[in-house]
Hints:
The protein is mostly helical and about 90 residues long. About 85% of the residues lie in helices and about 0% in strands.
Amino acid sequence: MKGFDGIKDQQKWLREAAEEERECEECEGLRDDVATLKSLVSKLDEYIALMDAELNETAGQAVLHGWQSSRVNEGILMRKEIAALRGEVT
C-alpha cells in the first residue's frame, strides 16, 4: 500500500485513481462502439451483395427494354470514397 503524508495526499490519490478508472471504462465503451460499427458495416456489405445480385438478375432484361443508368458516374465516385474510408478503418 502506498504511504501518504496526509489526508490531502490520500484524497489526491483517490481522485487520480477514480479518473483512471473512468478513462478505462470510456476505452471499453469505445471498443464496444467500434465492434458494433464493424458488425454494422459487415451486415451492410452482405445486404449490398444481395442487392447487387438482385440487380444483376434484372438489369439484363431492363437494358433489353431500353433502360440506361443515369447514376454511373455517381456510383464510381461513391465506390472510390468507400474504398478510401475502408483503408482508414481497417
